[in-house]
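Need tokens for this chain, all 270 residues.
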Amino acid sequence: MTKLPDKIFIADKQMKFNTKFDKAYKDISDKFTIVERDSLPDEAKDIKIHGNMHEVPINEAKFGLYVQSPVYKNRYYPLYKYDNNVYYGEIWECMHDLANRMGDNVKIVAAGFLEEVSSENNSSSFSVGAGGNYKVYNGEAEFKREVEANKERNNSTTTSVGTRVMGGKHTRKELHEYINKEHINIDALPTEFKNLVKLFLDKDEVKLGGYEYKIETIKTNDEYLDISNKFSLNGGVSLIFSAKFDIDTKEAHEKQYKRKHKIAYSIAFN
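Here are the structure tokens for all 270 residues:
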């Protein structure tokens, strides 16, 4: 797969030329690497643009700013569409997928994600993630109550801790090949879950039985959010976005006040 920087500006020759003389275009190119769409090699088609109705090969992407998924290295999103909910969905999708490839009888549950909320919005409501299989909390009290409730619901299904060797749906070689094929970056996953995957890849084993609920701080995509906010407040850049890319940066800016913080989850191999 063709390797590209994590922040790219897909442009034509004229836009690239403009970066030499137009301050707004230069402000963009200072943060994003310019990639001429017509100059992309054929193998770049393995990189997909997500975030719209249908994924498309990067060779067919509209001109604009795109950021790489921290979880899947072959996925890029329009800058203003890669928000917290997309990030949560990718983390949970990847954790669920890998867990089921490491065991024959796996139970993995997400109590939810806790978000720090800025002074722009101090509510304590929650929203339901894609597919309804996790919740996003803005208040720590609700988050902790849900974790405790999940512990109670799942205590009866756990077994004593042991070790399974060579018992997963995939061998370590198969899982390693799958991770490479799907361009998964396991370092973007919660630390203890990442270590679980690395143990399997190293020794073909997982611990049997129920794990206690893990509450982990997860890496943030604050850099992307901060860039989108700064661009939203830059009149020249906002004008380019509106005229060239049909993006309302004011609306996008108002959605970017949250910061992801923690995930609570449980996983058991029985």
